[in-house]
Design brief:
16 helices; mainly alpha; single chain; 3-stranded antiparallel beta sheet; globular; HNH_nuc; 480 residues
């Protein structure tokens, strides 16, 4: 395949590595430019859940074929390179540093004051190429050393154990119990559902994040309690009067009948965890309640109301399995059933309903320029503000052909033009913007770093006082 010498192979490898890094830099520059163009017209949505970042992430995730969360992360990286670290961005586009280096630089300089970030950007850009061979810990040390020179309070602070709690497979820290292991997928699904149920028993004013509530739910789960104590501090907390009704966790598995009766070894599917081997499906079936999926007729009638019936909702969720937005794999259990043509202009019907996760549902509904079209077999065609179109098949129908059904072509009239009503008024709001959240976090962390610096200075002063020699004593006799 390669008619080259060993030396040329090594040379070509280096050239390709540099071109790969440069391509990443150019791509991030394009992401930053798109956000700069979209944000002015979407700035009014900054306090909305579906803000400019969410809209741009929804637009770039299909072309990158990545999740919404990764798209949001790339937007943050692109904005930072464009506005705070342009010299580092220039080095990336030239290929002399790679994305690992850039990601570390962004993470370690995020708390640096805007007044000095330009000088620090220039200093780091001049040295970054020499740091390419350093390990990640050594690279962090070098960057922190330069941050200290320009802005000592901007050095990142290691998160406090109590504030960084979450339920994941991670090493434990002092004062916190770590949970680790490798368990069966069906057991993991049951555990996740139970933790979610306990975490949901507090009121909406509980100050903890969802991850922190899930971590705290391990205590009630281990003690066999039905609720998680709310921390809102209110005497009339509504959660205090409510209790979970059941301690039973229910999981759902999709499988073919031939797998259950042993005539085939086609795998099943466990929502949120993926493919489940046939033997695991049959083992679960021995104690499970078996319910066939109700398949709609080719000429299925439309349903009268906005909310789909239990049978239609069940079919749509099993047909889709995940959010239908290109690049998004959020499970249907955490998604909404959306009318492709908005109700009441589009009916509640299997050919006009599909699953979108909450953020993509909001983006499609409230952010201008997005439109979708659903085919009778469930395929979805999404159009973005740039004019690009993406077609996506329903995941469940791809894995299980019985769910790939033509549910009928709908003759839908064109919807009326938008009225003068401000639809954004109905969009869910944030407590504060993403930028305000970021500034609050930076302020808190800089205060923590300032306290650490002050404590270190006090310790050095105390040590100096204890080690300095005593002042010389004058032993001459007093004068007469």
């Amino acid at each position: 395949m390669f008619e080259t010498s060993d030396s040329e192979l090594i040379t070509f490898m280096g050239e390709e590595a540099r071109e790969e890094a440069a391509a990443v830099g150019r791509r991030l520059a394009l992401v930053g430019e798109l956000y700069a163009r979209r944000h002015p017209e979407l700035e009014v949505l900054d306090l909305h859940c579906a803000d400019a970042v969410a809209a741009v992430a929804a637009e770039i995730s299909p072309v990158h074929n990545i999740s919404h969360a990764r798209a949001v992360s790339q937007i943050h990286t692109a904005i930072t390179l464009r506005h705070r670290l342009p010299r580092v961005a220039q080095e990336l586009r030239s290929g002399v540093i790679d994305y690992r280096m850039v990601a570390t630089i962004i993470a370690r300089t995020e708390n640096v004051d805007d007044v000095v970030i330009g000088e620090l950007d220039e200093a780091i850009a001049q040295h970054a190429m020499k740091w390419m061979k350093l390990s990640t810990p050594k690279l962090r040390d070098r960057i922190d050393q330069w941050v200290t020179k320009f802005d000592p309070a901007g050095v990142r602070v290691t998160p406090q154990v109590e504030q960084s709690r979450y339920l994941e497979v991670e090493p434990t820290q002092v004062g916190m119990a770590g949970v680790s292991g490798n368990i069966r997928a069906e057991d993991g699904a049951a555990l996740t559902q139970r933790l979610d149920a306990l975490a949901a028993t507090v009121c909406e004013k509980d100050p903890r994040t969802t991850s922190q509530r899930r971590a705290d739910a391990c205590g009630p789960l281990g003690r066999g309690e039905a609720t998680l104590a709310c921390r809102c501090g209110s005497d009339d907390c509504p959660a205090a009067a409510e209790r979970a009704a059941s301690a039973t966790a229910i999981i759902h598995v999709l499988a073919e009948q031939s797998t259950l009766d042993g005539s085939s070894d086609n795998p099943g599917y466990l929502p949120g965890f993926g493919i489940l081997p046939a033997e695991s499906v049959r083992a679960l079936a021995t104690t499970a309640t078996l319910t066939p999926v109700a398949l709609p007729a080719p000429d299925a009638a439309t349903e009268p109301g906005y909310r789909p019936s239990a049978g239609l909702a069940d079919f749509v969720r099993w047909r889709d399995l995940t959010c239908r937005w290109p690049g998004c794999d959020r499970p249907v259990m955490k998604s909404d059933i959306d009318h492709t043509r908005a109700w009441p202009y589009g009916p509640t019907h299997p050919s006009n309903t599909k699953c979108y996760c909450r953020i993509h549902h909001l983006v499609k509904t409230f952010c201008p320029g997005f439109d979708d079209y659903q085919l009778p077999n469930g395929d979805l065609v999404l159009s973005t503000p740039s004019g690009h179109s993406y077609r996506r098949e329903p995941h469940g129908a791809t894995l299980f052909p019985a769910l790939c059904r033509n549910t009928g072509t709908l003759d839908l009239p064109d919807p009326p033009p938008p009225s003068g009503t401000d639809r954004c008024a109905m969009s869910p709001k944030r407590r504060q913007t993403r930028e305000q959240d970021r500034r609050d976090r930076i302020t808190t962390e800089r205060q923590q770093r300032a306290q650490i610096i002050a404590e270190a200075q006090r310790e050095r002063a105390d040590l100096k006082r204890n080690t300095d020699p005593p002042p010389p004593q004058n032993n001459d006799p007093p004068p007469f």
